[in-house]
Request: fold
Amino acid sequence: MKKEGKGCLVFIIIVIALYAIISSMVSSVKDKINEETIHIISSTDNKNIEKVLTDYAKESGIKVSVDYAGTLEIMERLNAGEQYDAVWASNSMWLYMLDSSKAKTSDSKIINMNPVVFAIKKSVAKDLGFVGTEVKLEDIIKAIREGKLRFAMTSATQTNTGACAYLGFLSVLAGNPEVLTEEYLNDQKIKDELTALFSGVNRSSGSEEYLEEMYLDGQCDAIVTYETSIINVNKNISNADDQLYGVYTIDGVSISDSVFAYLGKTNTEKEEAFLQLQSYLLS
Reply:
């Protein structure tokens, strides 16, 4: 019995030792994979071109992982200390919100530019006289004041498109100054025009995808969104008069620039791989 007890004890010790060795090996492999992988946190706005990035990475032998989040959530997570090798933001302006002690960016480049415009059902745009002619923001505000136009848009405080649209409208109404200052926010005429403009909002959403669904479901006749969203929506509509018509106001259009930036790690091989990916996206 004593021999059997000793045998069992030896067996248990061996099992524990093997488990510790295997766990250590698995952990080591995971660490190695983690070291070699470029971890990217990206705005959901970039999902439509993810395949371009991942296909090239696969062909080039570069390991990448992409986590998607809303614009403000990305900034909050990076400022909270979450570790990533690169950030792909929907707009370069958001990078100014980063705490450089937690997330220091470098090698920042604009990958693509996407106008944020009024997209109106073509039959409605025709009735408003907006098709095939120059349109100013004041023309849109006039149509809203007359009750001829209502639109949906994303939140100006929670989304990139909403913030870009708001800043774009404000800039146009202020006369397109080089810098928007508090003076313009306090200008009563500008405030009255903004109030009139936003009185036309009849639906709000937290994402561009939901805006697209709202339009396709017939819940609205106009939206403020990315140019790429107009293209996406129109792919699903065969009748030309039911498709969205982009109104690019001649006195100013807001542009969202998609920026891809490295997050300052000291791993030079990883930075070289990042720059290779960035260069391809720019080509």
Summary: The chain has two domains: 34-112+257-282, 114-256. Strands lie at 38-43, 64-69, 86-89, 106-121, 151-154, 201-205, 222-226, 244-247, 254-262. The mean pLDDT is 89. Residues 120 and 245 are 5 Å apart (CA to CA).
